[in-house]
Amino acid sequence: MYSDKVMDHFTNPRNVGEIPDADGVGEVGNARCGDIMKLWIKVENNVITDIKFKTFGCGAAIATSSMITELAIGKTVEEAEQITNSQVAEALEGLPPVKMHCSNLAAEALEAAIEDYRKRTANTAS
Amino acid sequence: MNRIYMDHAATTPVRPEVLEAMLPYFNTEFGNPSSVYSWGRSARKALDSARDLVAELLGASASEIVFTAGGSEGANMAVKGVAWADQGRGKHIITSAIEHHAVLDTVLWLEKQGFEVTVLPVDEFGSVSPAQVREALRPDTILVSIMHANNEVGTIQPISEIGAIVREHGAKFHTDAVQTAGVLELDVQALNVDLLSISAHKFYGPKGVGALYVRKGVRLHPLVHGGAQEKGRRAGTENTAGIVGMAKALELAQAERVDENARLTKMRDRLIQGLQKIPHTRVNGSLEQRLPNNVNVCFEFIEGESMLLNLDLRGIAASSGSACTSGSLDPSHVLLAMGLSHEIAHGSLRLTLGRDNTEADVDVVLQEVPGIVERLRAMSPLYQG
Ligand code: FES
């Protein structure tokens, strides 16, 4: 039911783990099925230089988490913010229709991490 | 890679002896059992002997057996059939929260049609209490439907006790015996049931065929109209090959069940004990009143589908009650009814053993699962080590 790309990211997820001194952390839960994803980002000169995730969820949730870390790394905060769930799904060569909601989780977690990063920088600037 | 199938509660392979018994009825003896010429007569003969055999194995008489297209049809036929036939006497139906959807959804559909429904809760082990059935019975109760053993957690229900209570009251009593046919003794007299449904593919028979026992005198409104087959209770040309296969499969399973159950129970207990050694693991269902082939555990902090995918990569077939594995994205209603949280139900794993499984398979599973759980936990934001 999953593409080879999904299975590849599921069996060898990239960037699993935590960043203890992260600049932004996002945690979101999935209202549909109750899964949770947490994402840590490190930002230098407005560019995401490191990113790690932990996910409590299905194969698609783990694969989309892994994929979004690959898509986001090296991008500016503004660019990363533009990543949509359908881009993640596309990069994974598609997801079964019933699993599309899992890719929202990844996009939302990244958004939340960036928001957290912005809040923190706003606080230190003031 | 050596593949290990441990999902026998989902379905089982057709036994070679069963397949062999079925084959002639696909071509050489292909006749319609309702035809008068020799082809028809030979199909009729096969059908009659299959009916006699199934009836004998259930402690029933041949006229009380209706052949169906499987467990879901049997459950629908029993529940809707009695509800429609007896609605003049009352419109109240009792069932339990852990029924298979074939019963539960049918009862809830009837509720929308104007019937009144009581869904009984279960205890933490998934048992329905006979006392609660007694309390729920009302003068207008016409039907009680409680499953013989649960398909997810394997809990065996006190059917004969519940049946005695329902009989005393006068309502009809159906039990979904899909998980117990060929496993437990199925004697409709001892079980005190009026209706009992079974499905062939759960006991090494073919898919798409089952039987419904209907006690003499129980009125049943048919689901399918259009012919006098099955004494007007189910129209449609009989699935001769399937029915012959089911009878053969049930005969073999009943003959071998005592020895086979002992073998399965040993493997089951070894699996449960082995998996329990993994920290933050709970066993679901009763340890005493349990099907001999059922293992159901929850590993905290991880999700079932990702576990199943990892097991599949190692050639092991299993199932889970996780929301992510169900098309509806709802977690197992059985685990929730037993009081488990959504989150814990997420990490459920069901292994159901069968004829082809060996102690060596158990070794492989016990070798693989801990590593998979550990790997997924390392990836989980909920796990603190
Ligand atoms: S995370 Fe639950 S279905 Fe994907």
Strand content of chain B: 5-15%
Number of domains of chain B: 2
Mean pLDDT score of chain A: 93
* Category by helix and strand content of chain B: alpha/beta
Largest sheet of chain A: 3 strands, antiparallel
Give the chain pair forming the largest contact, with residue counts: A-B, 25 and 22 residues
**How would you classify the helix and strand content of chain A by structural class?**
alpha+beta
Layout of helices and strands:
The complex is a heterodimer of chains A (126) and B (385).
Chain A: H1 4-11, E1 24-29, E2 36-44, E3 47-56, H2 59-72, H3 77-81, H4 85-91, H5 100-125
Antiparallel strand pairs in A: 1-2, 2-3
Chain B: E1 4-5, H1 16-22, H2 38-58, E2 65-68, H3 71-86, E3 92-96, H4 101-112, E4 116-120, H5 130-136, E5 141-145, H6 159-169, E6 172-176, E7 195-199, E8 210-214, H7 240-276, E9 281-283, E10 294-299, H8 304-313, E11 316-317, H9 333-337, H10 342-346, E12 348-352, H11 359-378
Parallel strand pairs in B: 1-11, 3-4, 3-5, 5-6, 6-7
Antiparallel strand pairs in B: 2-8, 7-8, 9-10, 10-12
Helix pairs in contact in B: 1-7, 2-7, 3-4, 5-6, 7-11, 8-11
The complex binds FE2/S2 (inorganic) cluster.
Residues 30, 33, 35, 57-58, 60-61, 99, 102 of chain A line the site of FE2/S2 (inorganic) cluster.
